[in-house]
Amino acid sequence: MQTRILQINEDSLNESRKIIMNGGAVAFPTETVYGLGANAYDNTAVENIFKIKGRPCDNPLIVHVHNEYDILSLVSYVPEYAKLLAKAYLPGPLTMVYKSNGKVSPAVSCGLDTLAIRVPSHKEAQKFLKYIDLPIAAPSANVSKHVSPVTAEHVFSDLDGRIEIILDGGKCEGGIESTVVDCTSDIPLILRSGLITREMIARVVGDCGEYSVKEGEKVRSPGMKYKHYSPLCRTMLFDYNEKKRAEEKYAECILEGVNAYILCDDATAKSIKAEKVLNLGKTETEIASNLYFKLREGENIAELIIAIAPEKQDGVMAGVMNRLTKACKN
Question: 3-class SS at 275?
Answer without folding.
Answer: coil
